[in-house]
Amino acid sequence: MDPRDTAVLLPQPSGDQGGNGSFDCAEESAHYAFSVQLLLTQYAALVPWQTEGVAELGSGDARAIAHVVRAVPGLTVHGTDISAASVERARRTIDDLGVGDRYTVELGDFFAWADSPEGARTSTVIANPPYIPAPDGDILMPELWGGWYGNDLVLRLLKAGFDHLLVALPSYSDPAATLAAAGELGYRVANFLAMGLEFGAYSSEPKVAEHIARLTAEGHGWAGEGSYVVAVALLTRSPEAPRDRSTELLRALQLSV
Ligand SMILES: C[S@@+](CC[C@H](N)C(=O)[O-])C[C@H]1O[C@@H](n2cnc3c(N)ncnc32)[C@H](O)[C@@H]1O
């Protein structure tokens, strides 16, 4: 399909950021959704989503990707989320949008699913993964903890053996280390969409904001005055990827290369 024939309806904020047990950041989810949609359609010859479907790490309340599934004929998504409140909401969203035949969300750890026979048959993963850097997981929504540098889950994803990852990479979660690991594992950056975001409820939590300030001062990423940049990138191990845009991606994330 032509990427111009698609339209993502942006999720509306619930007005209850951080308090309802599931992730809620309308701008971030919309950017993730829009980017996944554009990258999948634009790179349909490289990424076999039309024949295999895709898996999703961390569906949240599913408002982001349910709209993409509705807009993109032939796309099927198997999502996993570790938060019971999120899965309950996700199932409601999917029912309301009438995409239950092509989007399912199961409760559990994505990496356990990845080790299953179904996981082994899937080569593409989409994710706006937990990426909040903090000294420990005692934060506003513990499921969003990404370890000390914020990139623990994306590093696990890179090592899990999938050929294609469409994944959100924030500027403050040591993206240079993430991309260096990706390169060593044979991934190239086919393309990406980057957007500036304000710190939301999760990044502004004082314990998190202080940690981000420390990490970025030590050179493990970038953040401005209450703002950062997120890029959703297509990382692929396909030899057919026409080029590697890692350097452009790092520059878009405000890192010197
Ligand atoms: C940043 S939110 C993204 C939600 C949604 N994809 C969106 O963009 O609106 C990350 C989600 O990952 C989930 N999560 C965290 N660790 C997980 C794991 N090991 N397996 C599956 N989901 C996980 C969290 O519960 C959370 O809902």
From TrEMBL:
<dbReference type="GO" id="GO:0008168">
    <property type="term" value="F:methyltransferase activity"/>
</dbReference>
<protein>
    <submittedName>
        <fullName>DNA methylase domain</fullName>
    </submittedName>
</protein>
<keyword id="KW-0489">Methyltransferase</keyword>
<dbReference type="InterPro" id="IPR029063">
    <property type="entry name" value="SAM-dependent_MTases_sf"/>
</dbReference>
<feature type="region of interest" description="Disordered">
    <location>
        <begin position="1"/>
        <end position="21"/>
    </location>
</feature>
<dbReference type="GO" id="GO:0003676">
    <property type="term" value="F:nucleic acid binding"/>
</dbReference>
<dbReference type="GO" id="GO:0032259">
    <property type="term" value="P:methylation"/>
</dbReference>
<keyword id="KW-0808">Transferase</keyword>
<dbReference type="InterPro" id="IPR002052">
    <property type="entry name" value="DNA_methylase_N6_adenine_CS"/>
</dbReference>
